[in-house]
Task: structure prediction
Amino acid sequence: MKKNVLLTGGTGFVGKHLTDLLIQKGYTVSILSRSKKENTTAIFYYTWDVEKQTIEKEAVLNADYVIHLAGANIAEKPWTKKRKEEIVSSRKLSAQLIYGVLKKYDKKLDAFISASAIGIYGAVDGEEICTEEMIPANDFLGLTCQKWEASADYIWELGMRTVKIRTGLVLGKNDGFLNKLMPIFKLRLGSALGSGKQYMPWIYVGDLCGIYLEAIKNPNMQGAYNAAINDNTTNASFSKTLAKVLGYRIWLPNVPAFILKLTMGEMAKIVLTGRRVSSDKIEKLGFHFQHENLEEALRVCLDK
Result:
């Protein structure tokens, strides 16, 4: 009998790619959605409402694995006090819904796998390479990720294997981080941001989905894992490489940091700071990245 994987955030960028991979690998997929959708032979849809704290319990009770991707987009709106609360609560409350069903019905999963982010190491610059054992930062990004991961710890306390995937910038075709850059870079108006020296740990969406699949298949995988290429890409080198793939050289000066701060407010920290991260832990498990070269990954994403 096929194993069933329940996805939250399954209709998003990563969720769509992951759904396709899981079906290809012989799993059935269940997706929690705000509105009811028609089932297919491989995908079962269930409804939930995080704000109202309602969920079709069968979604959880029929699952062998849960992959928790849901959460408000951290870069979608300015970081007002209200928006910050939404970003944190969307992650905590959604996990609490699943936890509540697991505890009430004494349901045991083969594994609970939660998205997280390298933002746990903080919105700061530095040469130190961040490993999973580092103490999390106390700024907004660091605290948000800590609370995000703490939601998974409650499920671990119920006696289930839990995995936390700390993700870098995800590159993929026609979506994700790259999609936001393309309009200006296609006009040959792209340039580095701020100093350009800030690190940009990235990962190809296919490799990220591969890590989630590894978390399902590998019973020894537990705890936090960085999901980003350790190649020391900076904002300047990323911008230069993207322009090269599109057939031109960067000719404009860097966008000044003060302009980004004026237009983006506190959220400018996302693009003006960056940490180096280590991928050693996931690679020691035997995981191999398909795309470790930035230019190659960008050409795949852009069909160049």
The first helix runs from residue 13 to 24.
